[in-house]
Prior knowledge:
Elements: E1 2-5, E2 24-29, H1 31-34, E3 38-42, E4 50-52, E5 73-80, E6 86-87, H2 92-96, E7 102-106, E8 124-125, H3 127-136, E9 140-143, H4 154-161, E10 165-168, E11 181-184, E12 194-196, E13 200-203
Parallel strand pairs: 5-7, 6-8, 7-9, 9-10
Antiparallel strand pairs: 1-13, 2-3, 4-10, 4-12, 5-11, 11-13
Amino acid sequence: MKLIDLSHVIDNNMPVYPGDSPACMTQDKFLHSDGFNHHRLAIGMHTGTHIDAPMHLTDGRKYINEYGLDIFCGTAKVLDVKGEPVITFRNSFDGWIQKNDIVLFYTGHDEKYGTDGYFTDHPALDMNMVEFFVEKNVRLIGLDMPSPDHDPFPVHWKLLENDILIIENLRNLKELRNMAIRLYAFPLNIRADASIVRVVAEIIPDPAG
Length: 209
């Protein structure tokens, strides 16, 4: 089994969305003085690789831990859209993406993670793409950038209103182009509008060898 980690490392003062509180990862107990090691983490649920649930931007009352676990794993399709400032619908997507699929967008923007422009100068999905996802009943999308759109976030709102959850700040999608994969992206068992998450892709072997 080949697994690829699609998540950013959680550590002290990792990049956060402008205006969000910084992540704080500290060690407060030490083996030589306390007899054991212990670390503490203070972090927002929209920091690093995370999943947005509808409660984030809609009046939905369902916490992310109340969604069935089956939503967060399954067959995923990776769309190579690198170099496209506006990610638009293509007719070829219609035959490839199936009902209830998970769809991931490789833009290459993860290469800018940690730079000043990462949170501001990223591509965006257009509304035709979102309407296609609603029609296909896609359950989850994932992106190697901080958001599928920009303020005032109409794409965010449309996706979440239709119970399409959003994984943001992925990495390593370049390694998954043209591959069949199964995605695992379970949120914490947490009563919140979103959750930090470790996202892992399993490469499905080609039966033809």
